[in-house]
Specification:
Blueprint (H helix, E strand, L loop, with lengths): L29 E4 L6 H16 L12 E5 L6 H15 L6 E4 L2 H7 L9 E5 L3 E4 H14 L10 E6 L6 E6 L4 E3 L3 E3 L15 E12 L13 E4 L4 E3 L6 E6 L4 E2 L2 E5 L3 E5 L11 H18 L1 H5 L2 E12 L5 E4 L7 E5 L9 H12 L5 H6 L8 H7 L7
Parallel strand pairs: 2-11, 9-19
Antiparallel strand pairs: 1-5, 2-4, 3-4, 6-7, 7-8, 10-13, 10-14, 10-17, 11-12, 12-13, 15-16, 18-19
The protein binds flavin-adenine dinucleotide (FAD).
Length: about 400
């Protein structure tokens, strides 16, 4: 399929790629797939990605077109209204206006949510959108990639980049096992842990969103049968229908930024933003407050949920730039030897079916300059500002 903003795509090229089976943002349960961005470029690319989720193998194996309800507590003419107006105009001009429904009051919202979700006063339902079980599709991809004769997997934790004697060219990676792997081009796609390998201070921060997983009983299935994915932007409630007998709910963008003091392979001992060691979280009062918010949200979604045990409460980590724009670019300090796929923030998963092709198009210099510029390696930003204002473009 031809993708927007890429010249002369040749999708038959074999790409060197590495996928490690780990428990991270990409191995979680539900991820919302939507294309109703305000920003025209993200909108176009998200539509291309959604086309893949809905129609192409292997993506369509896990995609569920459940619809998505987006709400807020007031009809305040803010970004959600703009998103709705854009979506409605676009669908009307394509003769598909029935794919979006305005929800004028809480009763409309409850009805659109199959009787659940007693929250929000205005919003809309888009029938185009849906969700995927992220862990499911990653495992499917991994299985498919393992079949390929052109891809060789070396599994292990990367300790550092390896450079030539000038220090200006990355020539490979060093694994914690001591093994060195040599490469013409190293691609870092290590999510919020990237900052532990390359110095990304002032570019990105690692932010954790509180999540809770509720254990459902087999008889609960019917209650959630007609449930769409759901986002209340003001209450910060984000959820997808249950999968694997688990109901997952997150505090959308109510994240906290972690900074750790580490012995960094590039810059020595320094404070850098990466996820904390396993088990460490925010201060206890913040954690208690997040748990309370999640329990309150569960009660509003369905009193039944509030009565079921929370089997896991924790934080899911993403890496955010100030603007919320991704980094799909060479690292400028290493003469074209290090490529970064980083800063995917809280909205990157939906682009999975197409993002690799945009990365390849960058390498082959086939990418439209507008996208190249949008996803370039960003300028330095003061850490406090980055900590406070990161991911501003999440609305786009
Ligand atoms: C709570 C939450 C909700 C979200 N909801 C949505 C949504 O609804 N829709 C959407 O589109 N997006 C959503 N996102 C965003 C999306 O999940 C992320 O943008 C995406 O998964 C990031 O993928 P990634 O591969 O860059 O990073 P990750 O998924 O974090 O993967 C990084 C990988 O690198 C590995 N790694 C790290 N360091 C090393 C090392 N030193 N050596 C070897 N391997 C290493 C890790 O083990 C991991 O496998 C959400 C994110 C969160 C946290």
């Amino acid at each position: 399929m031809e993708l927007p903003f890429i010249q002369d795509p040749n999708t038959s090229r074999q790409l060197p790629e590495q996928v490690l089976p780990c428990s991270t943002a990409s191995y979680d349960t539900g991820r919302i797939i939507r294309d109703d961005y305000i920003h025209p470029t993200y909108r176009t690319i998200a539509t291309a990605a959604m086309h893949q989720w809905q129609n192409a193998e292997p993506w369509c194996r896990t995609y569920r077109r459940s619809g998505l309800v987006l709400v807020e507590d007031s009809d305040n003419n803010g970004p959600l209204k703009e998103t709705y107006n854009l979506t409605r105009r676009e669908l009307e001009s394509n003769g598909a206006s029935s794919l979006v429904e305005e929800l004028y009051c809480r009763d409309d919202i409850k009805k659109a949510c199959g009787g659940l979700c007693d929250t929000g006063n205005w919003g809309y339902l888009t029938h185009k959108a849906g969700w995927v079980d992220a862990g499911d599709i990653m495992n499917t991809l991994l299985k498919d990639l393992k079949q390929s004769e052109n891809i060789h997997f070396e599994c292990g934790r990367v300790k550092s980049l390896v450079k030539d004697e000038t220090g200006d060219v990355v020539v490979g990676i060093l694994l914690e096992s001591g093994q060195r792997l040599v490469a013409d081009l190293v691609v870092l796609a290590t999510g919020p842990w990237t900052s532990a390998l390359a110095d990304t201070r002032g570019k990105t921060v690692s932010a954790g969103e509180a999540v809770a997983y509720v254990q459902l009983q087999p008889e609960d299935g019917e209650i959630f049968r007609k449930m769409p994915a759901f986002l209340n932007f003001e209450q910060k409630i984000c959820l997808t229908p249950p999968s694997r007998q688990l109901f997952r709910i997150a505090l959308h963008r109510d994240d906290w930024v972690n900074t750790s003091n580490i012995d960094h392979p590039e810059v020595g001992r320094t404070d850098i933003s990466i996820p904390p060691e396993r088990g460490l979280g925010p201060n206890p009062s913040q954690r208690v407050s997040h748990e309370r918010q999640l329990r309150g949200a569960l009660q509003r979604i369905s009193p039944l949920l509030a009565s079921r045990p929370i089997v896991h409460f924790g934080y899911c980590w993403y890496d955010d730039t100030l603007t919320g724009d991704f980094i799909v670019s060479y690292h400028p300090d290493y003469q074209g030897s290090l490529f970064m796929l980083h800063g995917l923030g809280g909205h990157g998963f939906k682009f999975l079916p197409v993002l690799g092709q945009y990365a390849v198009a960058t390498v082959l210099e086939e990418l439209d300059p507008r996208v190249k510029n949008m996803w370039k390696y960003p300028e330095d930003v003061d850490h406090d500002r980055l900590r406070r204002d990161h991911g501003q473009g999440g609305w786009r």
